[in-house]
Design brief:
The protein is mostly loops and 115 residues long. The chain has 2 helices and 2 strands, in the order ααββ. The protein has a two-stranded antiparallel ribbon. It binds iron/sulfur cluster.
């Protein structure tokens, strides 16, 4: 029998018995435990890069901010409405620095939206 080459070992690494993987025991976690350990999805539903808007402004002071009141209050960017899911990944932090699409709350072009 010839010894395995390095690329061959790398190919086989994914199929090793998980019981041999004592220090990377991620396989023993439930999906919920895995999400909790890794911190879960982060709020990333911004219309543009946070901080690319006017200095000193935040999503809180933007007329595009939408607060969805369900069991909790979820903050979403109204400009990203067509991308919204029920998950945290499409939320925004109201304290996030404003993006370049920021509009003041008193913008007459805006109707409805954030409270
Ligand atoms: S600043 Fe306004 S437009 Fe930009 S992500 Fe926040 S809520 Fe949306």
């Amino acid at each position: 029998m010839t010894p395995a080459s390095a690329p061959e070992l790398l190919d086989r690494a994914g199929s090793l018995n998980p019981q041999h993987d004592l220090f990377l025991a991620e396989h023993a976690l439930t999906p919920a435990e895995r999400r909790r350990l890794k911190g879960g999805p982060q709020a990333n539903g911004y219309a543009a890069q946070p901080g690319s808007g006017p200095a000193g402004e935040t999503c809180r002071s933007c007329s595009h901010l939408v607060r969805k009141h369900l069991a909790k209050t979820y903050r979403k960017c109204g400009l990203m409405r067509h991308h919204w899911t029920g998950g945290k990944g499409t939320d925004v932090l109201s304290s996030a620095p404003a993006c370049r699409n920021w509009k003041p709350l008193s913008d007459p072009e805006m109707t409805g939206g954030a409270k």
